Amino acid sequence: MKREVLAVLVLTLVAAPNGLTRAATDAAPLRLVQTIPLPGVQGRIDHLAVDVAGQRLFVAALGNGTVEVIDLKQGKRVRSLAGFKEPQGLAYLPDADELAVASGGDGVVTLLDGKSLAPTKTVAFGDDADNLRYDAARKRLYVGYGAGALGILDPTGARRGDIALGAHPESFQLDGSAGRIYVNVPSGQKVAVADVGRSAVVATWPVAAGSANYPMALDTQHHRLFVVTRRPPRVVVFDTESGKAVTTLEADGDADDVFYDAARKRIYACFGAGSLIVYTQDDPDRYGVLARVPTAAGARTGLFSADLRRLFVAVPRRTSPTAEIRVFDTGS
């Protein structure tokens, strides 16, 4: 049976609030529309980035030491960029037309020209350069690295300081209007709250519901932060105004990416245990499971593009015959 057909069958029944099931013909949250193979790509796949205007998807193939470039119009890989040591984080800077690549193996952030994809500058952070986020309003690129800091770069690659954290950061999210950065610090089982103007941590919130808090997503409209733990698998919802956890949701194992869809009031979470869970936001403090979509072992990273209304899920070559990107339509 083709994956497209299987996905439709899986999504025809979803969990209702009373624990029963209901037909989802009018509300199927995801539809598998494309599978893009990545032949020859071995090992773990880490994070993704998208160039919306150029219709390009970038994939950090950590285990392969490459960044894979996908033409979304053609629905195929068009380039494989080699020479990276464990590429982990990616960020596309649309105003500068640059791609930033953070490599964990050597702690280097590489800036590439957006058109040629040739390297233009490298910035050494010493150890474990990881997640990247770009603040377009302030023209600042943030990179989590080393034993505990967010490094700050401008689009030219010039360093503009650090935000000290005390332990290695995993996913972090920018709240531009509030001038805050929320950072997952798994070894401390906490969220660090940084003030971008002061370049300093101003608060820490314990993650009491679980440990190994890696993925994170942000709902700025309702002041909610979604933190996913691995031990045990949970989604913890924080009120960013009070710093308190307001509810906790069940999850699956080995999470590494989670996204908030503001237009549809949904959360999409990728789990390496082999599933994708769609949560619905009934109000800022109440959530439910809308659908569980089977994926593949190790498919724990992805990317949601609100502009394209697409959710991209990275599937490594493990149980699948080849690595691939599965593309889901999130609806109109």
Strand order of the largest sheet: 3-30-29-28
Distance between the termini: 27 Å
Number of helices: 1
Sheet/helix structural class: mainly beta
Gist of the model:
With 332 residues, this protein is mainly β. 2% of the residues lie in helices and 56% in strands.
Question: Can you describe what's shown?
Answer:
- There is one protein chain.
- This protein is mainly beta.
- Helices cover 2% and strands 56% of the residues.
- The chain is built from 1 helix and 30 strands.
- It has one helix spanning 3-10; strands at residues 13-15, 21-23, 31-38, 48-51, 56-61, 66-71, 76-81, 87-93, 98-103, 108-113, 119-124, 132-135, 140-145, 149-153, 159-164, 172-175, 180-185, 190-195, 200-206, 211-219, 224-231, 233-239, 244-250, 255-261, 266-271, 275-283, 286-294, 301-305, 310-315, 323-329.
- A 4-stranded antiparallel β-sheet has the order 3-30-29-28, with helices on one face. A 4-stranded antiparallel β-sheet has the order 4-5-6-7, with no helix packed on it. Strands 8-9-10-11 form a 4-stranded antiparallel β-sheet, with no helix packed on it.
- A hairpin with a 4-residue loop joins strand 17 and strand 18 (190-195).
- The radius of gyration is 19 Å and the shape is globular.
